[in-house]
Design a protein that fits this description.
Blueprint (H helix, E strand, L loop, with lengths): L13 H14 L10 E4 L6 E2 L10 E4 L4 E4 H14 L2 E5 L7 H11 L4 E4 L7 H10 L4 E4 L1 H4 L2 H13 L3 E5 L9 H8 L3 E4 L6 H17 L19
Parallel strand pairs: 1-5, 5-6, 6-7, 7-8, 8-9
Antiparallel strand pairs: 2-3, 3-4
Helix pairs in contact: 2-3, 4-6, 7-8
Length: 237
């Protein structure tokens, strides 16, 4: 069990994990990229090697299990190739939270094909979202009420993202209880997407169950949110 409540099988490489996800989709008799797809949270700030206080020392990223170190450009290449090989439709925090150049470059390269989500990079801040949109970094944002601190600030971040034409995902975060408010925000704001996580722990399961109850209450008025139409990279090479 990982720190935030998800199952974490041990793999020898990241691609092994993605291979297993693809196999799971197929064994569930679902069509990869059509009925079910993959979203990855790179959390690249956690992959930084060196100290961010030493100039240049934090410009490299490390896959510890593979004993592999790379530059930001090399990490972006790896992610882009994964998007070609697997039905990946969403990539969260592909570069570190202080790597503005890398985020802009990755968005320019991949943003027409996948969601490029800012979480650590944007921290549910309307000002950061507006600045990132103006700079061409990201095209989607994770909205965490317990990250911004208030519903008012979260709504401001949501509106800034919508003004930029971005996708929006209301999300759970570390330290969650069984409170289900974020499910109501996702539905009430028509955010389109909800990120809760694994059903392994009760604070997550409570939210999925609330989503099911809302769907049941809405009946024929319920609509399934979908990813924005983009040109997928998967299986093109």
């Amino acid at each position: 069990m990982a720190d935030e409540g998800g199952w974490w099988p041990e793999f020898s490489s990241n691609s092994d994990a993605l291979d297993m996800l693809l196999l799971a989709i197929e064994r569930a008799d679902l069509r990869p990229g059509i009925d079910a797809a993959i979203a990855i949270d790179v959390a690249a700030s956690q992959l930084r090697s060196g100290s961010s206080t030493v100039p240049g020392s934090g410009s490299r990223y490390r896959f510890a299990s593979e004993n592999r170190e790379m530059t930001g450009d090399e990490l972006a290449d790896v992610l882009f190739q994964w998007c070609r090989r697997y039905p990946i439709v969403s990539v969260e925090d592909p570069l570190a939270e202080d790597d503005d150049t890398g985020m802009r470059a990755f968005t320019a390269r991949a943003g027409g094909h996948v969601q490029v989500i800012g979480d650590d990079y944007l921290v549910t801040s309307a000002d950061r979202i507006s600045a990132a949109a103006a700079a061409g970094a990201c095209n989607a944002v994770l909205l965490k009420p317990n990250q911004s601190g208030t519903i008012t600030e979260t709504k401001a971040a949501f509106e800034a993202a919508r003004a930029a034409g971005w996708s929006t995902i209301v999300s759970a975060r570390s330290g969650e209880t069984e409170d289900v408010t974020i499910v109501h925000l996702a539905v009430g704001w028509a955010a389109g997407q909800l990120k809760v996580g694994s059903c392994a722990r009760s604070e997550r399961t409570a939210k999925w169950n609330e989503a099911l109850r809302i769907e049941e209450a809405l009946g024929d008025r319920a609509r399934l949110g979908r990813l924005p139409v983009r040109t997928p990279l998967w299986a093109k090479s």
